[in-house]
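Priority: medium. Attachment 1 of 2:
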């Protein structure tokens, strides 16, 4: 190999991921172990369980990614690992493993910010230059930022309470969607998207959050409240037990998805206008990047397409596989940092993880 090679390791939440990339962004080997099934059974992530599963799997995941790439640890140029933000117990497993690994093989260590990695993954697939606007929507985060450089992000808005994906997951759980045969292996957001296809969103006109707030922040807990109250009312009307509403689950899913999409689109529209007014984006082919687990939702993508079309931005959305958590995005962030010589530490430096 003449190119520099980076091993990326991700354990910030419920996915144990590893990947080896070359300097151009070619994925030489990758492996991902998802804990989704276990957490679906317990109705949410229990941090100590996630930690335990990361511990069980990390060695195998990293070895598998290395083996598939045909790269020996000695050939690596650096190891990049998520150190923030995320669940402390989960982050700790990847960090401890990585620090032991870089010391053993005497390799530089690159601490990675999980959200920055999400934001920059698009550059592995498309040759887009800085700056660009990015909307990240996942189970843990909802934020709007201008990516100005590998380590330069201007945060325009974030969620004031819960993340979009978290809301979708909670609504799905409240409707017991995972008990539907066709949803048993889906995340809450995927289940909502599937049910919404046969639903009428107009039956439940939920209020779009923050209509009067003149910033680019998000809020989803009020919407979740509206949805929960509606479900309770319907359950009472129909005399069915909690979580067994069947008659209008599709309509509620469609209305929830529509309101989340509208909220995301409106805040993004504000952000675009703000960027334009302040010269934060290039005049020539400005770009909006949509990423995070929720970005794989086709209805939400459509809403963002309308916004980007009307404001003259090119919309880029990495394929679902790269929108959700994985080792590839961490390795790519490592590659970008290695290229610019930013944030590269010698093997013997003690690094702490930062949940926030
Ligand atoms: O990025 P991700 O894999 O993990 C983090 O949260 O970092 O995102 C997972 C989130 C979950 O909340 C899940 O319900 C949501 O993304 N999600 C979706 C869809 N697929 C996954 N939400 C809406 N529509 C989807 N198709
Ligand atoms: Zn993520």
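Attachment 2 of 2:
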């Amino acid at each position: 190999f003449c190119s520099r090679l980076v091993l990326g390791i991700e354990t910030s939440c419920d996915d144990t991921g590893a990947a080896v990339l070359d300097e151009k962004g070619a994925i030489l080997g990758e492996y991902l172990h998802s804990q989704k099934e276990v957490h679906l059974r317990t109705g949410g992530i229990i941090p100590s369980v996630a930690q335990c599963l990361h511990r069980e799997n990390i060695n195998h995941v990293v070895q598998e990614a290395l083996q598939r790439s045909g790269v020996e640890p000695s050939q690596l140029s650096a190891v990049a690992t998520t150190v923030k933000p995320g669940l402390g117990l989960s982050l700790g497993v990847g960090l401890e493993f990585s620090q032991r690994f870089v010391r053993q093989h005497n390799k530089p260590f690159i601490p990675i910010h999980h959200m920055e990695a999400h934001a920059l993954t698009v550059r592995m697939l498309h040759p887009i230059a800085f700056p660009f606007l990015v909307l990240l929507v996942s189970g843990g985060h909802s934020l709007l930022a201008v990516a100005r450089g590998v380590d330069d992000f201007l945060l325009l808005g974030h969620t004031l309470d819960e993340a979009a994906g978290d809301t979708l997951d909670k609504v799905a759980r409240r409707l017991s969607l995972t008990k539907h045969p066709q949803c048993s292996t889906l995340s809450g957001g995927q289940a909502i998207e599937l049910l919404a296809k046969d639903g009428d969103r107009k039956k439940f006109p939920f209020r779009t959050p923050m209509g009067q707030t003149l910033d680019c922040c998000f809020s989803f807990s009020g919407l979740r409240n509206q949805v929960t109250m509606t479900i309770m009312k319907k359950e009472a009307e129909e005399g069915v037990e909690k979580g067994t509403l069947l008659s209008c689950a599709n309509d509620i899913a469609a209305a929830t998805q529509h309101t989340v999409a509208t909220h995301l689109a409106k805040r993004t529209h504000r952000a675009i206008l703000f960027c334009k007014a302040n010269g934060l984006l290039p005049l020539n082919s400005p770009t909006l990047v949509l990423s995070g687990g929720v970005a794989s939702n086709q209805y939400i993508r459509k809403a963002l397409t309308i916004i980007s079309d009307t404001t003259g931005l090119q919309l880029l959305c990495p394929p679902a596989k790269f929108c959700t958590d994985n080792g590839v995005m961490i390795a790519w962030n490592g590659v970008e940092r290695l290229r610019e010589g930013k944030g590269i530490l010698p093997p013997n430096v003690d690094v702490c993880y930062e949940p926030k």
